[in-house]
Amino acid sequence: MVKQKEWEKISELLEDGLSVPKVAEEVGRSAPTIYKLIKTGGPKTSRQRGMKIPKKLKSFDSYLRKRIKKGVSNDEKLLSELKKLGYKGSYSSLNRYLKGTQNSNQNYKPAIRFETRPGEQGQFDWGSFGKIEVNGKVERLYGFVYVLGFSRMMYVEFVIKQNLQTLIQSHINAFNYLGIPQSILYDNIKTVVLRREKL
Which of 15, 10, 17 is nearest to 67 (CA)? Predict the structure, then answer.
């Protein structure tokens, strides 16, 4: 049986970008066990004995506890993160859940910002900005967002495609504007990720 502390270590390793097989090797568990823990949201705890968790939030309970423990309690930010993970529930369900956890989270420390040296790292992600009309046709508007880790300087380029050609050209434009760091951190995007592990 996996204890809460071990689950927290597994969650941290996954958050640091390790693959499920590497995490399994690191903690001495099988990969199927790790996949099952991710799917179920970790081991069950007695912390929530009197608190009813909304049905659609049950599988995200462990993730939410981890984020709250790191000092993230903004309901809109958490809702945005959950939607990216597949949450289909409402804002009010999340809000009720967060209010129920407020009293038990008094002693959590605030999140510590991840810092890098100058020129060490840049971060990239796509943003969605609704729809616009281009040559009489309605297109989705995306933002290529590139941020330098140390200075937090940002380059944003608006595009209507998220294909590889656009990605490469946007990188070239960003590098010409802000320079090239030693490494770039990417989110889980189709134009960069070759394969995703099934949960």
Answer: 15
Helix ranges (H only) for 49-156 are 61-69, 75-84, 91-101
Q: What is the pTM of this model?
A: 0.42
Q: Is residue 141 one of the residues assigned to a domain?
A: yes
H and E: helices and strands count for the chain: 7, 4
* Domain count within the chain: 2
Residue type, 62: S
Residue 191 within a domain: no
Q: 83-127, pLDDT tens digit by residue? A: 888 888 888 788 877 877 665 544 444 555 667 888 888 888 888
> What DSSP element (H or E) covers 134?
strand 121-134
- Range of the structural domain that residue 127 is part of: 121-186
Closest to 197 measured CA to CA, from 20, 37, 42: 20
CA-wise closest residue to 199 among 93, 111, 86, 104: 86
